[in-house]
């Protein structure tokens, strides 16, 4: 128990009249200066009440006073709190609220004398708090060191109201064009942890150099079905691709993290220099289950949120921040991914008979990839398409027949949609999927049997279709249940992978070729 001060005078005692300074402890909460509220009971009103009714009547509730705290006590504290900021037993010190200035009134500890004592500052870093000793129902006091980042102002530990530099502004935004989602692969058993970029922000300043002292980060997705803090080992920051020392944190609780950036300076742009400084949010990802905590198919991402703490290096004053978070960037966590690349055709001249219309390769990164469905758009005139087939030509020009493509109808731009899936593939793939081994590529050709090819004005424009990287899937997809996506693949992460397992997804964010289209003509 903290030592008691000597007997106080009848009125509130000034700090310099108390001969014993109790040991200081650090408070657990603080308010801003604008949140400090003073609830002081008039000494005159209290004296009149005592004179006419006595303490027993007041304590029994016959007189209502502007107070807080439990009824029936001989001690009342206007900033009563059901918590204890003092670090002592809440059963005895449940009236300590250092963030609000208040007045404790009642019988003084070690005395029968009535006092009315208001919280005050011992100095700018130490608070003299008056409160109720719950066990003895008497007014007592103690001194407390204000928490880091707060100061004692008019009887309360508060965060100082910043004085802004009105001539300097810091602007923060996601850079144009928007950074779309991408697939991120992470470690599996025996592999190294993965370091990845989650988002990149542009910082620009007007009026002078700005020191960014700290930024606050939050997960982009909070749905437990789609993401988990267990997907991350740590979150850290980089400035223009160089990691910022000590700007690293481990997500816990809500996932929000405040990272210090004390050497990140943003300078105003000139005609000969870029006006932007980039701040990149990066992560070290956990290995995938079962060896680690990350889950394949999860959506991951971290973004900057308010507040951003920044000061002018010219004046030392706080800088106002014009902030546009842009909603953050989503990424898709997988054990592996397919990477699509165009391949040149031997000829782009159309003839009657069998023609190669489109050639491409798919590489499996980090692990095996399963393919279930591929789709193409075709626009043609002055020719009849008798059949459309997909061949695996990795090992020979003739190739292995994968299966027929079916014409599924017209697209919005009047092109025809043709697609194949595992259920239509030839007996070369009896489990209804093609497996591409880790770090291997397979080469495929789309072949058509054509008739009525004219010697003029005959063209076929063929486009490989997969979902563009700006749509966030709401859950992994089961192949057997049907899919609306154009390109369906699996990272084979399910412990019991099959065509029915829940580890299939569509083409969202799959890296594709620069050009998706091949044109042939007669």
Strand content: 35-45%
- Termini separation (Å)? 97 Å
Structural class of the secondary elements? mainly beta
Number of strands: 34
Largest sheet, if any?
8 strands, antiparallel
Whole-number average pLDDT? 78
Tally of helical segments: 1
Features:
mainly beta, six-stranded mixed β-sheet, eight-stranded antiparallel β-sheet, 522 residues, disordered N terminus, 1 helix
Would you give an account of this structure?
Helices cover 3% and strands 43% of the residues. The chain has one helix and 34 strands. The chain has one helix at 43-59, and strands at 31-32, 75-77, 103-107, 114-118, 120-123, 126-133, 138-145, 151-153, 156-159, 164-173, 182-185, 194-206, 210-219, 232-239, 242-249, 257-266, 277-285, 299-300, 302-312, 318-324, 331-334, 337-342, 353-365, 369-381, 384-392, 400-404, 406-410, 416-421, 434-436, 441-451, 459-465, 488-490, 504-505, 517-521. The strands form eight sheets. Strands 24, 27, 28, 29, 31, 32, 33 and 34 form an eight-stranded antiparallel sheet that branches. Strand 14 (232-239) and strand 15 form a beta hairpin. The radius of gyration is 35 Å and the shape is elongated. Residues 1-72 and 468-475 have low confidence and may be disordered.
Strand and helix map with partners:
Blueprint: E1 31-32, H1 43-59, E2 75-77, E3 103-107, E4 114-118, E5 120-123, E6 126-133, E7 138-145, E8 151-153, E9 156-159, E10 164-173, E11 182-185, E12 194-206, E13 210-219, E14 232-239, E15 242-249, E16 257-266, E17 277-285, E18 299-300, E19 302-312, E20 318-324, E21 331-334, E22 337-342, E23 353-365, E24 369-381, E25 384-392, E26 400-404, E27 406-410, E28 416-421, E29 434-436, E30 441-451, E31 459-465, E32 488-490, E33 504-505, E34 517-521
Parallel strand pairs: 1-9, 10-20, 11-21
Antiparallel strand pairs: 2-3, 3-4, 5-6, 6-7, 8-9, 10-12, 12-17, 13-16, 13-19, 14-15, 14-17, 18-21, 22-23, 23-30, 24-28, 24-29, 24-31, 24-32, 25-26, 25-30, 27-28, 31-34, 32-33
């Amino acid at each position: 128990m903290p030592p008691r001060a000597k007997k106080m005078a009848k009125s509130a005692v000034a700090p310099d009249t108390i001969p014993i300074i109790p040991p200081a402890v650090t408070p657990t909460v603080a308010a801003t200066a604008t949140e400090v509220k003073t609830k002081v009971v008039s000494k005159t009103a209290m004296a009149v009440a005592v004179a006419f009714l006595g303490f027993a009547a007041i304590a029994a509730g016959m007189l209502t006073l502007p107070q807080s705290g439990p009824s029936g006590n001989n001690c009342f504290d206007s900033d009563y709190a059901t918590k204890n900021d003092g670090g002592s037993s809440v059963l005895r010190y449940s009236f300590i609220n250092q963030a609000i200035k208040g007045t404790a009134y009642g019988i003084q500890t070690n005395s029968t004398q009535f006092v009315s004592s208001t919280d005050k500052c011992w100095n700018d870093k130490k608070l003299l708090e008056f409160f109720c000793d719950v066990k003895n129902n008497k007014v007592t006091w103690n001194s407390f060191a204000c928490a880091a980042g707060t100061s004692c102002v008019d009887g309360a530990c508060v965060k100082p109201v910043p004085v802004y530099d009105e001539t300097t502004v810091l602007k923060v935004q996601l850079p144009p064009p928007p950074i779309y989602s991408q697939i991120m692969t992470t470690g599996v058993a025996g592999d190294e942890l993965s370091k990845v970029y989650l988002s990149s922000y542009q910082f620009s300043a007007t009026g002078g150099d700005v020191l960014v002292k700290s930024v606050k980060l939050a997960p982009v997705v909070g749905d437990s079905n789609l993401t988990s803090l267990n997907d991350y080992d740590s979150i850290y920051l980089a400035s223009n691709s160089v990691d910022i020392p000590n700007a690293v944190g481990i997500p816990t609780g809500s996932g929000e993290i405040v990272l210090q950036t004390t050497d990140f300076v943003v300078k105003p742009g000139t005609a000969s220099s870029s006006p932007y400084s980039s701040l990149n949010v990066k992560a070290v990802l956990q290995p995938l289950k079962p060896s680690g905590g990350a889950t394949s198919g999860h959506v991951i991402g971290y973004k900057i949120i308010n507040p951003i703490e920044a000061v002018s290096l010219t004046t030392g004053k706080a800088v106002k921040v014009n902030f546009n978070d842009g909603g953050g960037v989503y990424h898709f966590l997988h054990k592996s991914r397919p990477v699509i690349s165009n391949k040149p055709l031997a000829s782009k001249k159309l003839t009657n008979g069998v023609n190669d219309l489109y050639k491409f390769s798919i590489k499996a990164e980090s692990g095996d990839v399963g393919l279930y469905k591929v789709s193409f758009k075709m626009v043609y005139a002055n020719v009849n398409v008798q059949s459309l087939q997909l061949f695996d030509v990795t090992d020979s020009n003739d190739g292995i027949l994968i299966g027929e493509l079916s014409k599924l109808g017209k697209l919005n731009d009047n092109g025809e949609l043709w697609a194949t899936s595992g259920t239509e593939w030839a007996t070369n793939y009896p489990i209804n999927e093609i497996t591409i081994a880790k770090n291997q590529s397979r080469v495929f050709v789309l072949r058509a049997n054509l008739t009525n090819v004219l010697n003029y004005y005959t063209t076929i424009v063929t486009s490989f279709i997969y979902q563009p990287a700006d749509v966030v899937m709401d859950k992994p997809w089961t192949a057997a249940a049907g899919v609306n996506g154009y390109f369906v693949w699996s990272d084979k992460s399910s412990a019991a992978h099959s065509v029915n397992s829940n580890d299939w997804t569509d083409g969202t964010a799959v890296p594709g070729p620069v050009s998706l289209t091949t044109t042939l003509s007669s």
